[in-house]
């Protein structure tokens, strides 16, 4: 038998999140975590096989007995430490050139997101710079952002295009994401978001037509030729951007080429994006600061996951999304950093902290939302998001006996995180 990749032993606690093959948790079920705790005699061990999957989890004594003659490429003594699954970031815009640090001052002085956007800044500013950037330049900055995410514990991340707004630049961005998958040890769910804004000089209906008749067919062809692997379709459904009907048409066109529906809805105005998304059977809807009660009810019924982005409401001083109401209604809640030039945050532990303090989630709920449910929001919870036999050996080893320190120690996660493990390999 080939050598196994990794043995971690003597941990104080291993937070599995779930241990019965659950693929998503809703509402009240998000309150409870499955945890294996050390006993007086024994710590907790995890064995990762030669392919990078979890082969066993249990008390040290049992594991030692079962794997008596096993050899390992690496062994980690986790005495005094806790272990959680690799974090999953359900929503990011990490491919772009030209930061918007100057706009932060404008927003602090009171300019709203749409005022900046309508004056030609915001997404338009980033589009201008991203169109000019080469693939190599975009890849260079993307790689460093992905490494910062990894160092903060993220091992699976959703990454959007959306600063091209024309076929050539959208494809350039998707190709950059494709190349990054081979360069950085982080898993990526790739999202086409050509309808992220209405390009300057076009109307929303012209842009809708371009996305459906030009961009999607070109992306589909590249997918069929296996040159691109795209997983999700996204639209910014918002007053003054794409309306509900235009969004629906674009999402349907994406669904027709096999993409999962995962879009921005009800962020700044209550325009019934959630109702439409639930009717379409969307996998996930992000933001939802202004979601209606009916929208929540329909999302619970359709099993559409709410991807909540605590940084957005915090930075833009928006209403907080009604997360407690969603949880009480049985909606599955996931979390994302929303990393983009407006919300420059690459850290899921910080996002979880904001979710707890500002959105009134419990720490257990925040961990479920940042692991299993975020994985489910990109259709990957059969491999990611919990520590169970057969799943990817992706985990974060914390230099604290109680995992909650990762949230509690505000801004201190880089000290709390001892190692990040991707499929059994120590990457941080
Ligand atoms: N709201 C739309 N999209 C992004 C912001 C993108 C940008 O401002 O560049 C978001 O999710 O927050
Ligand atoms: Zn976004």
From TrEMBL:
GO terms for molecular function: imidazolonepropionase activity; metal ion binding. The lineage of its organism: Eukaryota, Metazoa, Spiralia, Lophotrochozoa, Annelida. Its EC number is 3.5.2.7. It holds the Pfam family Amidohydro_1. GO terms for biological process: L-histidine catabolic process to glutamate and formamide. It catalyses: 4-imidazolone-5-propanoate + H2O = N-formimidoyl-L-glutamate. Keywords: Histidine metabolism, Hydrolase, Iron, Metal-binding, Zinc. It comes from Owenia fusiformis (Polychaete worm). The keyword Zinc applies. This is Probable imidazolonepropionase. It is an enzyme of class 3 (hydrolase). Belongs to the metallo-dependent hydrolases superfamily. HutI family. GO terms for cellular component: cytoplasm.
């Amino acid at each position: 038998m080939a050598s196994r990749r990794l043995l971690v032993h003597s941990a104080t606690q291993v937070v599995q999140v779930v241990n019965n093959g659950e693929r998503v948790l809703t509402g009240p079920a998000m309150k409870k975590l499955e945890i294996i705790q050390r006993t007086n005699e024994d710590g907790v061990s995890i064995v990762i096989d030669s392919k990078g999957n979890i082969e066993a989890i249990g008390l040290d004594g049992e594991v030692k007995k079962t794997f008596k003659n096993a050899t390992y490429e690496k062994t980690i003594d986790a005495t005094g430490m806790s272990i959680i699954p690799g974090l999953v970031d359900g929503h990011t815009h990490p491919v772009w050139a030209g930061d918007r640090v100057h706009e932060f001052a404008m927003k602090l002085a009171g300019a709203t997101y749409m005022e900046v956007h309508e004056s030609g800044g915001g997404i338009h500013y980033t589009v201008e710079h991203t169109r000019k950037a080469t693939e190599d330049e975009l890849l260079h900055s993307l790689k460093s952002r992905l490494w910062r995410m990894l160092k903060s514990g993220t091992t699976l991340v959703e990454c959007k295009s959306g600063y091209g707004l024309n076929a050539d630049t959208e494809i350039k961005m998707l190709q950059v994401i494709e190349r990054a998958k081979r360069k950085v040890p982080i898993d990526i769910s790739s999202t086409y978001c050509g309808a992220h804004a209405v390009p300057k000089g076009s109307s929303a209906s012209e842009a809708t037509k371009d996305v459906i008749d030009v961009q999607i067919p070109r992306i589909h062809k590249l997918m069929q030729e296996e040159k691109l692997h795209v997983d999700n379709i996204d639209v910014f459904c918002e007053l003054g951007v794409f309306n509900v009907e235009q969004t629906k048409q674009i999402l349907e066109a994406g669904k027709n080429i096999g993409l999962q529906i995962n879009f921005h809805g009800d962020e700044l105005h209550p325009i019934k994006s959630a109702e439409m998304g639930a009717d379409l059977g969307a996998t996930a809807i992000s933001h939802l600061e202004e979601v209606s009660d009916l929208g929540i009810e329909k999302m619970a019924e359709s099993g559409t996951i709410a991807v909540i982005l605590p940084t957005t409401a915090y930075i833009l001083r928006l209403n907080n999304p009604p997360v407690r109401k969603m949880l009480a209604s049985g909606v599955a809640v996931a979390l994302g950093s929303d990393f983009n030039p407006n919300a420059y945050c690459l850290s899921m532990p910080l996002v979880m902290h904001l979710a707890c303090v500002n959105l009134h989630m419990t720490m257990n709920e925040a961990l479920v939302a940042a692991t299993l449910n975020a994985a489910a929001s990109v259709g990957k919870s059969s491999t990611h998001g919990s520590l169970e036999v057969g799943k990817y050996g992706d985990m974060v080893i914390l230099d604290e006996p109680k995992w909650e320190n990762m949230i509690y120690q505000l801004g201190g996660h880089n000290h709390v995180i001892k190692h990040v493990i991707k499929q059994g390999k120590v990457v941080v």
